[in-house]
Amino acid sequence: MSGQRWTLDTAEKRQFFNSHIAQMLQAGKKPVVQFVRPLRNPKTPDQIRYAHSLCQALADHAGVPLEEAKTDAKREFGVIHVSTSTITGDRAARLVSFSDYKKDEMSGFISAMEHHLISNNIPFTPAAL
Question: Which residues in the chain belong to E strands, given as ranges?
Fold first, then answer.
């Protein structure tokens, strides 16, 4: 298994992987353990920096701290996770951190922020991502 990388994004692949490990152990071979997690669609560091710069432009225009502008922007254009409590049954919503956005979610946030800034004549430096 050394030198191989596995993406275990389906139940069939996970089952095959587990049977492969069992066969190796029966043959007396010791598998190399690597951290395995679901395949993600990662956003780029440039997207994160640009999203922060758009939020900074909003903060500068409104005269508020960056974190306040970023929170408001995420409420309007970002990803919100809604869950229901198993104890009380109450629904709760929380804003998702930029680090947990998928690439397409970050692209959507950036497009919405650019549109908002342009529509409100708020100066910002456009970036080509």
Answer: 80-84, 91-95
**Residue at 97: amino acid letter:** S
Cβ 93 vs Cβ 82: under 8 Å: yes
Cα separations (Å) of 120 from 62, 76, 114, 115?
11, 15, 10, 9
The residue behind tokens 């508020």 is 64
Cβ-count burial 18-30 (b if 16+ within 10 Å, e if not): eeeeeeeeeeeee
The 10s digit of each residue's pLDDT in 52-83 is 999 999 999 999 999 999 999 999 999 999 99
CA 35 to chain centre: 19
pLDDT digits (tens, 9 = 90+) for 99-123: 889 888 999 999 999 999 999 999 9
